[in-house]
Amino acid sequence: MADGRRRAFIGSFTAAGGPGIVTAEVDAGSGALTVLSSVQAVTDPSCLTLAPDGETLYAVSETAEGTVAAYRVAGDKPEPAGRPVPVGGSGPTHLSLFAGHVLTANYGSGSVTAVPVRPDGTLARSASGVLRHTGAGPHTPRQQGPHAHQVQPDPSGRWAVSVDLGTDSVRVCTLVDGTLALYRETALRPGSGPRHLAFHPDGSHAYVVNELSPSVTVCRWDAAEGVLTPLSEIPVLPGAPAGDAYPSGIVTSSDGRFVWTAIRGEDVLSVLAVRGDELRLVTTVPCGGHWPRALAASDGFLYVANERSGDVTWFAVDPLTGVPSRGGSISVTAASCVALA
Asked: Which of 135, 116, 114, 113 is nearest to 124 (CA)?
């Protein structure tokens, strides 16, 4: 930020009583959050992402009609930068910036949308393209059709990669003149329900967290050819779950030594150590609340948006073991995500 202070932007489900978008200051030494403001933004801003210059924040509206909106964040309270733009899909759950566009993953309609970004960071009035996924999986009723859950650029910036829970697959796409096109689709284990993917900092591996089975699929990533190759699948719990166990977020450490996942129901964070082409489950620790929907990492700290307990909890990470220790939390009703500036 221009004033040198670090910020965190927190999304929440307004339909469940959430405040919209919360801005918090981040203490560089402790990782602690202090709430600065909240703003009633679009309905159910379940996912947020920042422009590289840190001046514009983008939010999806996870509703049946589905929109994306831009906000200026020079001060302590986000200010709308134009009207929300329809994404031509329902239930957008994730968004990212790629090749001058905002991409949204539309869970309800099983599609990915591209919306052009103007030079000043505002959004064009309409989407430039919608790529519809096809297929299904064996897990009913969750896999009766496609459900795009995440879309992001690969580390090389050449490809857009979308993860589809409904089709048990990851799609590698191109974007030319605002039009998304499927380049290659990689099948994962039927019924695994892939939700999110995190790339290793070296750009040669990717880790897919599976929602319908508490596991991570380790993949090799070839950016030159746009090829994702599954290598192995490992559990993110030390034994069979006691009840519900639905993994949500996944992040890698900046040094590439660790991977963390959040698991709803079990309400834990898993710590996985990277060993070349393999991951090893080190341990699990309580997530600090109930139903951890999203996970973010920065500067030796982890931040967890606990949706049902209505809080965002921060953890300090041991640099040698990768094990997080709870630092504290702030209250955010129906917290959905954390974006760090």
From this structure: 116
Distances (CA, A) of 255 to 62, 233, 251, 323: 33, 22, 12, 14
Tokens representing residue 217 in the block: 């699929």
Tokens of 107: 């869970």
Please count the other Cβ atoms lying within 10 Å of the Cβ belonging to residue 326: 16
User: Model-level pTM?
Assistant: 0.97
Amino acid at 122: T
How far is Cα 317 from Cα 299, in angstroms, rounded to an integer?
Answer: 9
Q: Which residue from 85, 113, 115 is spatially nearest to 100, judged by alpha carbons? A: 115
Each residue's pLDDT tens digit, 301-310 = 999 999 999 9
Residue 53's CB is within 10 A of a number of other CB atoms, namely 7
Write out pLDDT tens, residues 90-145: 999 999 999 999 999 999 999 999 999 999 999 999 999 999 999 999 999 999 99
Which residues, in sequence order, are bridge partners of residue 220? Answer: 205, 229
191's tokens: 């019924």
